[in-house]
Design goal:
The protein is mostly helical. The chain is globular, with a radius of gyration of 21 Å. The chain binds adenosine-5'-triphosphate and magnesium ion.
Length: about 400
């Protein structure tokens, strides 16, 4: 492959005003999370998760080699700006700091909210292309699909025995995803997917999971499963599994063009791979509000503030300053600023993606190599689990 996986990609600026604290309120207000009660569940844990993320950043800075990261995505469509600023940028940053990183393509989980996983092979290739384009380096990050790793999936059975049906049913993110599901009935896979996600994380004993806000309830369940497994089956005080931490970014919940969480499956996303004109159209269609004056106030004006933050992240500026510059020029001027900032920021990423798309053979090889490594790791962990459970015959 002629394209260097380490050629420069834009670095994410850290605008002072876009600290997680400033952004937290974005999850409230008119976000879709509110309507299903998901915000109640996630914002309660948000400030603790943000404090913990700040502590973790300091520990990572001191010793990146002590951490192992697992993170990933469902192959349900092209990755979008919510992914980029919510988690992808963190993944690349951690990889570049020398943290061992596993990147999972959660293909079985596509079937949690739809009957048929349409064009799954193409979607998976799309995802790998997005990863390569943003700077994920397969020489340092293991990219794999969970359906290809049998031992990982076997962990689901003992893990399910460690959680109650009521614990699964009160998960606010599952409730939210059921509300947006394309299925008329809730499948067992949807209901149990947080336990499946625990297997995704714990098969490689990851202790750090860079995620968006919607994943906090799942992380909590993974910690519970790890703790219960260790209590029940650990011997001599040696835990089998770590209790992993979520690592939140400065934009843990970017809103989509309709003012709800930007999501691949909800038709409200600005894909990383979109062309400049498509981006302009999508930004122009974004929901704003009736006030002409532009201000950065995530709680009172979530839609406008999400657009301001997007521009600020791309420009490396404080969102309050970006808003002040636009002032009374209104939503059209805000959208023009966002479009220009996004298109400029994403140009090198889009260019790299187009070059990788010329060589799908390489993309498939990346996945085969990653699957092989993940299988070895999963077999080792399953061996330890069977020994702990005394099921080695
Ligand atoms: P789908 O609609 O198919 O569920 P999605 O857009 O929600 O897709 P996922 O694959 O479910 O994407 O999520 C992958 C990762 O990206 C998770 O860590 C999630 O927290 C993060 N993420 C997704 N959307 C956003 C967003 N709008 N803001 C911040 N982080 C996000
Ligand atoms: Mg999702």
């Amino acid at each position: 492959m002629s394209i260097s996986a380490t050629s420069p990609v834009p670095t994410l600026p850290a605008p002072a005003g876009a600290s997680p604290g400033t952004y937290r309120e974005q999850g409230g207000g008119k976000s879709d999370e509110t309507s299903t009660g998901a915000t109640t569940g996630t914002t309660i844990g948000m400030s603790a998760a943000q404090r913990r993320s700040a502590e973790l950043e300091e520990l990572i800075r001191q010793d990146p080699g002590r951490f192992r990261v697992l993170t990933g995505d469902r192959p349900t469509g092209r990755l979008h700006l919510g992914h980029y600023f919510g988690t992808l940028h963190n993944r690349v940053r951690l990889q570049d700091l020398g943290v061992e990183t596993f990147l999972i393509i959660a293909d079985y989980q596509v079937l949690t909210d739809r009957d048929v996983a349409d064009r799954l092979d193409e979607r998976v290739e799309d995802l790998v292309l997005d990863y390569l384009a943003v700077g994920i380096d397969p020489a340092r990050t293991t990219i794999f699909a969970h359906s290809a790793v049998s031992a990982l999936n076997q962990l689901l059975l003992p893990f399910l025995s460690l959680v109650s049906v009521s614990e699964l049913s009160r998960n606010p993110t599952v409730k939210d995803e059921i509300a947006h599901s394309r299925q008329s009935a809730v499948s067992g896979l949807m209901f149990t997917y947080p336990a499946h996600q625990a297997a995704d994380i714990l098969f490689c004993k990851a202790d750090l999971v860079p995620v968006g806000q919607d994943q906090l309830p799942h992380l909590e369940l993974t910690r519970t499963i790890a703790r219960r497994f260790n209590d029940r089956y650990g011997t001599g005080g040696t835990p089998v599994f770590p209790e992993p931490d979520a690592l939140l970014s400065a934009a843990p919940l970017l809103l989509g063009t309709d003012g709800t969480k930007m999501s691949k499956s909800r038709g409200n996303a600005i894909p990383l791979a979109a062309g400049a004109d498509e981006t302009a159209l999508l930004v122009r269609s974004a929901k704003t509000d009736a006030h002409r004056h532009i201000a950065y106030d995530p709680e009172a004006r979530p839609e406008v503030s999400s657009l301001v933050l997007l521009a600020a992240l791309c420009l490396g500026r404080d969102p309050h300053e970006v808003a002040a510059d636009i002032g009374d020029k209104g939503a059209a001027a805000l959208k023009a600023t966002v479009t220009e900032a996004v298109n400029e920021y994403l140009a090198p990423i889009r260019e790299r993606r187009a070059r990788y798309a010329q060589d799908l053979g390489y993309v498939r090889q990346v996945l085969r190599d990653g699957n092989e490594i993940a299988n070895e790791v999963a077999e080792t962990t399953l061996g330890e689990v069977r020994a702990a459970m005394k099921t080695l015959y």
